[in-house]
Amino acid sequence: MKKSVVVIGAGPAGLACALELRRRGVADVLVLDREQRAGGTPRHCAHQGFGIRDLRRLLSGPAYAQRYVDLARAAGARMLVEAMVTGWSEDGELQVTSRSGRDTLSADAIVLATGCRERPRSARLVPGSRPEGVLTTGLLQQLAERDLPLGTRALIVGAEHVSFSALLTLAHAGVKVAGMVTDLPRHQSLAVVRAGAALRYRTPLWTGTALSEIRGLPRVQEVELVDLDTGAARTIACDTVVFTGDWIPDHELAVTAGLELDPETRGPRVDTRLRTTRPSIFAAGNLLQGAEPADIAALSGRHAAASVHDWFAREDEWPNRPIAISCRPPLQWISPNAVNPSSGPPLRGRFALRATAFLRRPELEIRQDGRVLWSGRVAKTVPGRSASLPSHWITLVNAKGGPIEVQLAAQRH
Q1: Phi, psi of 163, deg, nearest 5
Q2: In angstroms, rounded to a whole number, what is the distance separating the alpha carbons of residues 107 and 63?
Q3: Is the CB of residue 387 less than 8 Å from the CB of residue 353?
Q4: How far apart are CA 305 and CA 17, in angstroms?
Q5: What would be the CATH architecture of the domain defined by 322-413?
Q6: What are the contacts of 62-65 at 24+ separation with CB within 8 A?
Q7: How far is CA 84 from CA 88, 100, 286, in A?
Q8: 98 within 8 A of 82, measured Cβ to Cβ
Q9: For residues 264 and 327, is the Cβ–Cβ distance under 8 A?
Q10: Do residues 353 and 406 touch, judged by C-beta distance below 8 A?
Q11: Residue 207, C-beta contacts closer than 8 angstroms, at least 6 positions apart
């Protein structure tokens, strides 16, 4: 297939997309990444737990990342690292700055796979001094990989999957963890993960508690925590604070491309084929929402590759603006966040749903113009973790109707 595709982002989604494009016979596949090495975030995660859903094997983060790099290269995908896509030309070409200088690139299709990032302390508006030793999980893992100093006693802010990943990184680096703190009533990870961490590391978990102030100069010396039920404050001595979770997609390129963003996921609006609102541009992985595990991101990249290939093969016209899907609180977002009735099912035949509250067996409805397209229960919702919704209701969507809304069954307009 004499077509060209540029994939922006060499994490699991981008590499899996490039690999699948080459497997499907797309002639020219170029992967761009601003980092010095391809592989994405997993290459900084020394612990096990990667590759179950996509590679059918259990790997450490670095091994998982290298596996995808090797597979993509062996399949014939080209990679250019230390290449920053800075914007778009008036003709829709990519403006790229790399070690060889500035250039413009064009392609028959572009796949955005730029991932997501954690909000830093400044975006969370935590007051106090501005000392050294305040990190996100990503920065923590990069420093640990380079064997750079991480302090001696840390506080982890958050209690979701990535928070326990931060705990493992700190423990492997010999840093004592004073505790984990979350403003939610309980942790958001799997029970077995929490139990294992409690048994292995004896790390306290303070729920219903907020970090109210960071103190110290030139490095963190202590933090103040506030119990949200009683208002009681206490001080914890530490020299490192790690902010975890609270994800936001790296959507700058999507914004400058003029793509419609979903206000709930804060990523590009895409239909079930991962087509954006601009012809020839697809999006995949955790750019769509923050954040799913690496193997889910990789499967999303494969799904995007299949969509690109099918678009090339059929030479279809780009679909008209899809019908948006939104959520009513306490439901937070759904992904994909738009449908075209003829576009088929999403990845793995299901939609991912997030909520801001812990709900057990909630009954949900999906409605369009007051008409129920689907109703049913999910086992539970946990903030920071996705529940799954079926997709067979897509065939009932009125292509000329209004937006679609997901809500608790007890809610009515």
Answers
A1: -65, -40
A2: 31
A3: yes
A4: 5
A5: Sandwich (2.60)
A6: 64/12, 64/294, 65/12, 65/38, 65/39, 65/40
A7: 12, 12, 19
A8: yes
A9: yes
A10: yes
A11: 159, 182, 184, 185, 186, 187
Q: What is the pLDDT of residue 198?
A: 59
Residues of the chain above pLDDT 90, percent:
78
Give the Å distances, CA to CA, from 294 to 40, 50, 156, 207.
9, 7, 22, 27
Least confident of 40-44, 186-190, 224-228, 393-397: 186-190
- Look at residue 413 and tell me whether its pLDDT is greater than 70: no
Over residues 90-119, mean pLDDT = 93
Q: Which stretches of 146-292 are DSSP H helices?
A: 161-172, 191-201, 252-256
The domain limits of the chain are 1-118+246-319, 120-245, 322-413
- Provide the pLDDT for residue 333: 97
Q: Which CATH architecture has domain 1-118+246-319?
A: 3-Layer(bba) Sandwich (3.50)
| Structure-token pair, residue 228 | 């949200």
Provide mean pLDDT across the span 328-345. 93
Per-residue burial over 270-291, b if 16 or more Cβ lie within 10 Å, else e, is bbbbbbbbbebbbbbbbbbbbb
CA distance 128 to 311: 52
Is it true that 1-118+246-319 and 322-413 share their CATH fold? no
As a whole number of angstroms, the distance between CA 373 and CA 401 comes to: 12
How far apart (Å, rounded) are the C-alpha atoms in residues 248 and 240? 23
Q: Is the peptide bond before 185 cis (omega within 30 degrees of 0)?
A: no
Q: Do the Cβ atoms of 72 and 40 come closer than 8 Å?
A: no
Query: Is residue 83's pLDDT more than 90?
Result: yes
182: Cβ contacts below 8 Å, ≥ 6 apart: 157, 158, 159, 163, 188, 205, 206, 207, 208, 209
Size of the chain in residues: 413
**Contact call for residues 384 and 161 (beta carbons, < 8 A):** yes
Q: Which CATH class is domain 120-245?
A: alpha beta
pTM of the prediction? Answer: 0.93
39-78 per-position pLDDT tens digit: 999 998 888 889 999 999 999 999 999 999 999 999 999 9
- Kindly write down the DSSP assignment for every residue of 257-309, as one continuous string: TTPPBPTTT-SB---TT-B-SSTTEEE-GGGSSS---HHHHHHHHHHHHHHHH
Phi and psi angles of residue 102, each rounded to the nearest 5 degrees, phi first: -100, 145
